[in-house]
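Protocol step 4 of 6: structure prediction from sequence.
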Amino acid sequence: MPDTNYPKEYLRLLKNRLPEMLSTLQRLVLAESPSLEKAPADRCCDLLAAEWQKRGASVKRIPQKLRGDQLRATWWPEKSRPVGQFLVLGHYDTVYSSGALAKIPFRVSRGKAYGPGIFDMKAGLTQALFALETLQQTKAPLRHRLVFLCTSDEEIGSDAARKLIETEARRSEAVFVLEPSLGPRGLIKTSRKGVGEAELIVHGRASHAGLEPQEGVNAIHELARQLTSIQEWNDLRRGVTVNADIIEGGTRVNVIAERARAVLDLRALRVTDMRRLERKLHALRPILPGTKLEVRGGFNRAPLERKCSAALFAKAKARAAEMGLSLGECTAGGGSDGNLTAALGVPTLDGLGAVGHGAHSANEHIIIDTMPARAALLAALLLPS
């Protein structure tokens, strides 16, 4: 069979596997895997490891003390010699605590499947399992080692997994991220905002608010002035936002506030804007005499710029067309582990996971009959260009 026929064949085969895909997905959803609870997360990791091993992948678990173990599954045809590597990147942790299934049970209704973590991203992981199986079944002419990395702390910042992700990305020619797509059309995420968090702390001087107000320097008043100025940095057209979402200050109503702080959410679509924001934050100077400023933090994930995904998206669009499907793209305001790999200059395509809605909510669901096409698309992307 010529290479150009593979995507269409994958879709045909996977449509017949949809009941098995749904059954596997159900098992994964029922294996609750909170980011902050190691024991249940490890049980989900056990299940995933068994699924990869069942498909002949070489599985390695990277133990973690406080979080679920990280999981690395590797596969290539036995008789071939891999030239390079493709990384398929996902996470199995969810934002839901143990017991969430009691309130948000796995269920199927009107073509949708519901459950905690089903959209973000256990359906994406299921699709990756069946994509590999289809590549094996069709004896696809693969050239690259396939590495499937399933991490356990993406929802809380990937602090433990970050080094592992970056190490695998540096070995890879391309990274395919199993985060959910956007909207009912299953838009691929070709760019993502960089994300950061900064803390602005103001030091003033306390005094009695009634007896000696002139002796005090009000940190809250200074903070209010600073935030009014910072608000002007927002530029929605360029995708730059700075939002003060936590504010604290003062001790008692009759004491001039000696200290105040604000925690800022930082977002930018371009690396140049990210750096400009950080420079402006660290260049802030006091407005009220007698106050001092302290700035901590900054961006922890650089933007995934479209130039890093453009070639891969063109390939994905062409593969989808071979299946008779159209594929669109979008920009996402939130960050993912794809930001980390793109920051290294590795071509990265995000949003290859499930089609659905309601991530992190009681209404989280996927559209069941889109699963074969998404799995087929992933399999087709793992073929040589």
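Step 5 (inspection) to follow. The domain at 194-301 is CATH 3.30.70.360 (Alpha-Beta Plaits).
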